[in-house]
Amino acid sequence: MRGFLIALVILAALAVVMARVLKRGFDVRNAEGRRVTGVAPGQLGTIAASVAGLVLVIASVRVVPVGHALVIFNTITRSFRLSPQGVTLVWPLISQTQQYDLRRLEYTMSATTGEGRRAAVDDSLWSPTQEGLQVGIDITVWHHLDPARVTQIHQKIGPDYEKIIRPAVRSVIRLVISEYPVMDVYSAKRAAIQDEINVKLKALVEKDGFVIDEVVLRDVRFTDQFTKAIEAKQIAQQAAEQMKYVLEKESREAERKVIEASGRAKAIETINEALRQNPNYIRYLYVDKLSDKISVIVSDQNTIMDLKGILEAKGK
Q1: Mean pLDDT (whole number) for 139-168
Q2: Hey, is 95 helix, strand or coil?
Q3: Per DSSP, which regions of the chain are E strands?
Q4: pLDDT of 4-58, one tens digit each?
Q5: What pLDDT was estimated at residue 256?
Q6: 105-222 adopts what CATH topology?
Q7: Structural domain boundaries of the chain?
Q8: What is the pLDDT of residues 226-281, one digit of tens each?
Q9: CA 301/CA 20 separation, integer angstroms
Q10: Beta bridge partners of 98
């Protein structure tokens, strides 16, 4: 803000000087005292100096957008200066400037067309697992520059710092994925893998002035051959579950039959015991099951049973 005010003051002063010079320059009189339109020879230098000064002032003004910083290098003193967002002044002709974005930036590597820095091609990362199987990783890294180290980044790396972020991300992902079995990458430990990538990536790049905000493991893909193998395994598991259900059903049915047979055996044993205690009990059961219309039955050549009498006795 102070630089902007200084620039305004200089511009205002130059404008006043040029206005006065031009006014006087157009009020020229000859030897007879008559007004002559034109510029006095001695005033041309003043006008030229004023114009040059105005151009230099305009050239020294820089507007730094919100969320950005401007690195200023003085080629005479060989010193660096960092200017924050707003209007700032630089020495014209002897200053080199480079603008840096301090806001949170996204770096995405994805197989989806239209995403990431290389949107026209498949930019996903393929990495081997613990078993040596290849998996495709889509990942997004949110990061920003450390404002206190922007000058250092400019000196050692430059504005094309993607050449640092990209190799670091690829290296860390391959290192972490290679430590896990493929099924852990597929489902069970995906969140743990993401956290480990986050920690290791921070340790690798933050020493250079890059702050990692978050790492997002967006998608995990497999080769067509492995995908078919997973589908076949799932089908086999479903068949095994179905067979397990059938076996359990048959086992329960067998247990039911054993229990039923055991009950019948106990019933027969009870009946046998009753018959041993009362031999005529079997005759009673036999008669009890006959039709009411039958009143006499011959059990052998010498015995005639009066069923009517027996039933009447039973009724009494």
Answers
A1: 91
A2: strand
A3: 28-29, 35-36, 61-64, 68-74, 79-83, 86-89, 95-101, 105-109, 125-128, 134-145, 210-222, 296-300, 303-306
A4: 455 555 556 656 655 565 555 545 555 555 555 555 555 556 666 666 666 777 7
A5: 81
A6: Tetrahydropterin Synthase; Chain A (3.30.479)
A7: 2-100, 105-222, 224-277, 287-316
A8: 666 666 666 677 777 778 877 888 888 888 888 887 888 787 777 777 777 776 66
A9: 163
A10: 71
